[in-house]
Every structure is written in structure tokens, then in C-alpha cells.
């Protein structure tokens, strides 16, 4: 059987073909964003397994044109999406995108370098050092987390990676003192509001699940983790011969936006020799505004801090900043040193950073250029205005909920997250109230006009509205409130 003729220009990185096809994709995305409000925010007709039936069972034998591929994206892909960049997406936490984020992503993808060590792309390594120091300065982090202060930062893909890496560093630091057998006695601590990523990470690094302490929080503390609660749990474990290893403090929890008291928890961690990690994945972006920086007070007592620019900082997925006060603790746990990964002949008086030793994988993306473009394009003042605009929208929504006697705010708003529900009424038990709120959320989402998610707090079903989309304007927040009232009227009648 003869071989088919191949067009070399199709397979090589031909500048003309690249420009033509990339322009077609950019034009497609521009139309998508221009029309995004025409799409239901959720894929309304999708059922598990139904979408894959649209696609062929096997890959095509011969290549197809980019125009035809984009036609199929329009017909077969867009209807099955949940549109995270819709201005009426208020679910989970936002995944920001922006023009500068796209530009930075295109540069990262287009240059397509793999900067796992300094020599693999020197500027990628050193620009990463620059942007993480810039971000530390914007957040008001102590100098000890900057390279000039003896610490340093790295860009990961997610908080999960950051947590696993810092747990491994804490584990190995303890093993160096106590021996490998001590891992079975190591205990990790978090609140019942901490993201489940923490428990996954602890399992990955070998902490026995019986040694996870998920500590109760209360409404009185705004569902933040009490230092007294941690101290009591630690003292009980120490009395049993266990080893307190790691404490996770969260600034802006996923469910309620709760804030753990960093300084008080840091003092407990120092007292018992625990690694303190501050997870500010969502709310860390707000710390660029001086009025929110107080929530990181006590950060100098921490061993590590993380936040996600891909959540609320106009930086397209994926990008997570992790800072450590002692980089050697991280690299001791994660480094590899085969001969083929040595910086032979690099010269200079400064030892280079090899970011392969700051992360789980060897290969990595040039994320630094993406965050650098965002910072350059919008500037610190622009980013502060962006954050404050969303906070003002959430403040308006919170006041609207309070003013309607059918609803209640279940926990005071933090940042741009509002948690609310239909309030209990005389003659209706808790299960019925939960049922009404489930119906309300389902009705709003089924309308296609907005998308929100829920949380369960003290056994109560709570609806979350997270404001933070790059395209979200005040009119979208007003519209979702009108939609909620409309659906509430259908369920429980007017106010």
C-alpha cells in the first residue's frame, strides 16, 4: 500500500500557516465573547454520557481544515460548556481571563519553552523570580518570603500542588529530626472549612488518615479556626505521643469565605514546631488593596503562603503563587540531581535556581511571562480598582438580600462572596427549608440566566453568590437578584 503525500508546511511550524490559523482562532474567540450572554450559563440539556455520542468513535484518518474544526467547536463544543467567563457565572470561585492573560498565555504557549532548570531557559527562571517578588510586594508579605530576604517563590498550577509540596517539606523536616518511622505519628490540622485539597495532599505524602484533625468552627468566630481549638487538639495529641506536623490557615475559605486568624494560629504553630501554611487561594488577590491586607497579619510566622492569580487576578488558568520562608526545606524534599540535569558551564557568582526542585513534576510551563504581562498591562492601581469593583457589587447584593424579609444572609460577607438562603418560616421545619432552597437554586440554574453553587453549613443548605468575573457588571448582579426574587415568588410567594 503506497504512502499518502504529506504537506510539509502543514506539520512544520510554518509562520504563514501559524499566523492564518491563529488569527482564525482569535477571531472565533472574539465572536464567542461578543455573544457570550446569548448562551445559557450552564449546559441545560446535557446528561452524563450524552455528549460523547456526538463525536466519532475514532480519530480522522486524514487531516481537516481549521475552518471545519472551528465549525464543529461552534456546533458540538459550545453547547456542552458551562461558560465560566459568562458575566452571570457566580458559582464556585471565578476563573479569571483577560486580554492580557490571553496575550501572556499565547506568549507562553507560542514560545513553548520548558524551563525546568536555569539553563533550559535562563530568562524564564529569572523572570519568575521577579514576578513572584513583585506579587509578594503587592500583597504586603514580609520580606522573608522574597528572594532578597532569604525566601522565595515559585509558580505552580494549583493550590493542590502547593499544598503537597509544602506538606512534603514539612514531613521531611520532621523526619530529619525524628527518623522515618515518625511519619506514622505525624498529625496535620485544619478547620472544617479548609479545602478538601488539604486532606488529599496529606494522604499523598503518607500521613495516616487517622492523623488528620479537622477541627470544628462556629458562627461566633465567623467560621474561622480558633487558636484555642487548635491548641487543645495539639496538646491532646502530644500527650498521646504524636507529632504535630502541619497547620493550614485559610484566608477566604471555599464554602463561606471565612478567615482564619493567622497571627494567633502562627503563635500556636511556633510553640509546637509545626509548619504553618497560609492558603489564600481566593482572597489573596484582595490583599493588594490595603484595606484587606490585615487578613494576612502574622504572615511572618508562617512557613509558606499561596494564592491563585488564576482565580481573581485576571490571569488565565493556570497560575498559583507559592512562597516559602526557607527554600531549602522545599528543595530538600523535592530535588533530583541526575547528571543530565546539571547547569554545566553556567558561570557567574550566583547559584542558579532550578525550579524543577520546587515542584512535583520535572517539566513545567513558562507561566511567569503570563503573570508578567498581566502586571505590566493593568498595573497595581488597575488591579486594585478591579478587586474593589467586585467587592462593591457583592456589598450591594448583600444589602438587597437583607432588605427582603424572605431571605437571610447566613454569615457576614467577606470579600466578594455572599452566602444566603430563604429564611425559615413559622410552621416549616428545617428539612422543608432546605428543600425550598435546593429548589430555588435548581430553578435559577435551570433558567440558563445565571449559575450559582451551594454549601452546607451546620446542616443547612446555603446558596453562594461569588462575584468576580472579568465581564461581570453591576447590571448582571441586579439581574441575578431579580431572577432570585422571581423564582422565590414561584416557591413561597411575594414578600
From TrEMBL:
<dbReference type="InterPro" id="IPR015424">
    <property type="entry name" value="PyrdxlP-dep_Trfase"/>
</dbReference>
<dbReference type="InterPro" id="IPR010977">
    <property type="entry name" value="Aromatic_deC"/>
</dbReference>
<dbReference type="InterPro" id="IPR015422">
    <property type="entry name" value="PyrdxlP-dep_Trfase_small"/>
</dbReference>
<dbReference type="GO" id="GO:0006520">
    <property type="term" value="P:amino acid metabolic process"/>
</dbReference>
<comment type="similarity">
    <text>Belongs to the group II decarboxylase family.</text>
</comment>
<dbReference type="InterPro" id="IPR015421">
    <property type="entry name" value="PyrdxlP-dep_Trfase_major"/>
</dbReference>
<dbReference type="InterPro" id="IPR002129">
    <property type="entry name" value="PyrdxlP-dep_de-COase"/>
</dbReference>
<keyword id="KW-0663">Pyridoxal phosphate</keyword>
<keyword id="KW-0456">Lyase</keyword>
<dbReference type="GO" id="GO:0019752">
    <property type="term" value="P:carboxylic acid metabolic process"/>
</dbReference>
<dbReference type="Pfam" id="PF00282">
    <property type="entry name" value="Pyridoxal_deC"/>
</dbReference>
<feature type="modified residue" description="N6-(pyridoxal phosphate)lysine">
    <location>
        <position position="311"/>
    </location>
</feature>
<keyword id="KW-0210">Decarboxylase</keyword>
<protein>
    <recommendedName>
        <fullName>Tyrosine decarboxylase</fullName>
    </recommendedName>
</protein>
<dbReference type="GO" id="GO:0030170">
    <property type="term" value="F:pyridoxal phosphate binding"/>
</dbReference>
<dbReference type="GO" id="GO:0016831">
    <property type="term" value="F:carboxy-lyase activity"/>
</dbReference>
<dbReference type="GO" id="GO:0005737">
    <property type="term" value="C:cytoplasm"/>
</dbReference>
